[in-house]
Amino acid sequence: MSRRSRRGRHHGVADTSHQRQVDYSKLKNPLLRQPAFSQDRLEAIHQTALRVIEELGIKVLNAEARDYFKQGGASIDESTQLVRIDPALVASALESAPSEFVLHGSVAQADVTLGGDNIAFTCVGGAPHISDLDRGKRPGTLEDTCNIIKLSEHFDVLHLQSPNVESQDVPVHLRHYRVTEAQLRLSRKPFFIFSRGSAQVEDAFAMTRIARGLSQAEFEAQPWCYTVINTNSPRQLDIPMCQGIIDFARAGQVSVITPFTLAGAMAPVTMPGALVLQHAEALAGILLSQIVRPGAPVVYGSFTSNVDMKSGSPAFGTPEFVQAAFGAGQLARHIELPWRGSAATASNAPDEQAVYEFLMSAWGRILGGVNMMVHAAGWLEGGLTGSMEKFILDVEMLQTFAEIFTPLDSSDAELAYEAIASVEPGSHFFGCEHTMARYQTAFYEPLVSDWSNFGQWTENGSKTATQRANGIWKKILQDFEAPEMDPARLEELQAFIERRSAEGGAPVD
Question: What is the per-residue pLDDT for 303?
Fold first, then answer.
């Protein structure tokens, strides 16, 4: 099924004379934002977070980052590696950080605007395992990574590439070459680079410049790629995460600064307390980026949830996860930055639990005003597994959200007075002129949902949604054609990888 058209159907027979054209590549969320706090309590959370980083401080393990904080006016205790930050420094950083910016793809159609009412989706990220109905759960490989890149490229409701699953069959000191090459070769969309040390980041930046045909100045003039920076909650920034903020800010690329504040574990057990810690840690990372390069694009990230207090395992799709999303969205808008949230589940299989936890998570972020929803397709087992079938199931839900974002046409013709007048009381609208004129274009056609009755369902093969999803992802991969890439650029890219690999690659710092 095409990602851009849905064929109308009449009595089960496809009619190719009409096609409903859809385009999910640029989405805006028109829904009202759901607040978690009154304005005065929201300001209290912000002020308490400022108090945390001023009086208690953030432990910064990276010496270069501490030097930057010192240059920016923060107080440094080298014996404890604690950085204490005056609120005025934070205010200055928030003035320079852009509230909206464009993350560029290889073509304008693939550009993604982050901030405001704009919303972008990306799939599962960072999972060590992959699963499907045919082979079950197993360690991820480069082939699996490439397959998910292809699926993400195919569906225009997925706007950014992600780190999807780990290519564990490629050594870590060489992995970034193959994964970055795959993203650049198989997709036109903005993409992800791991912050695994300056050498790997610079390799990936160089590959981006080659593939996109950019000079150093052109590359640094606008963002082409992004990374995710996770703080070590509570109140710590480690060496590679600090280095990632520095490297991406210097190059004018995007850092998504995301504290991992699980209430009751790495954060206070109350949601407001967890949000205070999240906000404090995020502000510290944002400040570092702006000290390095004022105006560097950053995204306010949140991953606050609760844990199962019996096991200590993260829980997702819970009431607390949704409430935290409402609060995080408010905080991001309060400081006027784009907001990153997640659509997550702790389920181990693409089952009912996976669906309802995903939907609760996703609705929490959408009503909270998320600009960048990560893990929005294929996430399973609390992020430990990427599922091929769940990828397709989730895409159907993302397309449903995209349809919900479409404003209703309330013109006189759509109010349908004449149609109502043309149908006798107690009759039906199936065959009236108003219905037939719109039959091929009126409704969204789902990817995997089957709305037939039980008799038709059994007659047509009785496949579950998960079984249908299995066939869909296989067909997409079978038919996939990579976007065209300048042969000279591809040759230069591959020569770069061969040379750097022969030199020993780039070990993780």
Answer: 93
